[in-house]
Design brief:
Elements: H1 3-26, E1 29-34, E2 36-38, E3 47-54, E4 57-64, E5 69-76, E6 86-93, E7 99-101, E8 105-107, E9 111-113, E10 115-118, E11 129-135, E12 158-164, E13 167-173, E14 179-180, H2 182-204
Antiparallel strand pairs: 1-3, 1-14, 2-13, 3-4, 4-11, 5-10, 5-12, 6-11, 7-10, 8-9, 12-13
């Protein structure tokens, strides 16, 4: 097949692959395991944080494992720019109400976070799951745009006060490899396979 014809075939295939991967990015989700602690024995996991890109906002779901509960504060950061950051739709499973508190928070052992979701005191908390939505003026294009490390302590993307059977401490996670949401990888792989089949079929003609 002439080189010029091959180029004409490759261009639409590349375009299709870009469309498929753009769809994957739109539905992307990251999972960060809360496996670091200040006050508890062992490496965890103590919980996880799942961030999902929905349109230009990021939905966040924090889930605690094996009897652990959240209380006090949950800290997170935003990869710049920070202009116009808003936190909405704060909800929890168990415990008292949680709400966004502007001004950031310091969590012992993990340092300083730009943003704070504040909850009930330890004695009143049975919170096993926390969810909220983060938006900003510039919008988000990836679920990993909340993956910015804290400063002034053990670096972490996220951290929270936690309790287990009356013992209290802090747990956090991040800084290691991010686990892509399986559907994202499947869609990307399907796009590559389709392009490969189409190219081989054209080559045989």
């Amino acid at each position: 097949m002439p080189t010029a014809c091959k180029r004409l075939l490759v261009l639409p295939m590349v375009g299709l692959l870009l469309v498929l991967t753009a769809g994957a990015r739109t539905a992307s989700a990251d999972t960060i395991t809360l496996n670091q602690s200040n006050g508890f024995d062992g490496p965890g996991p103590f919980g996880q944080v799942v961030t999902t890109l929905v349109g230009s906002s990021i939905n966040v779901v924090v889930s605690m494992f094996d009897g652990f509960r959240m209380f006090g504060d949950f800290g997170f950061n935003v990869v710049d720019p920070d202009a116009g950051v808003a936190v909405t739709s704060v909800a929890s499973v168990g415990g008292g109400p949680w709400s966004y508190v502007p001004g950031g928070v310091h969590l012992d052992g993990f340092g300083n976070f730009e943003f704070d979701i504040a909850g009930p005191a330890q004695g009143n908390s049975q919170t096993t799951q926390l969810s909220f939505t983060v938006s900003r003026t510039a919008g988000f294009t990836s679920a990993s745009q909340l993956n910015e490390l804290s400063t002034g302590g053990t670096p972490a993307f996220f951290a929270t006060h936690a309790s287990l059977n009356g013992n209290t401490g802090f747990v956090g996670g991040g800084g290691g490899p991010v686990v892509p949401e399986p559907a994202t990888m499947s869609l990307f792989a399907a796009g590559l396979a389709f392009v490969g089949r189409a190219y081989r079929r054209r080559k045989q003609i």
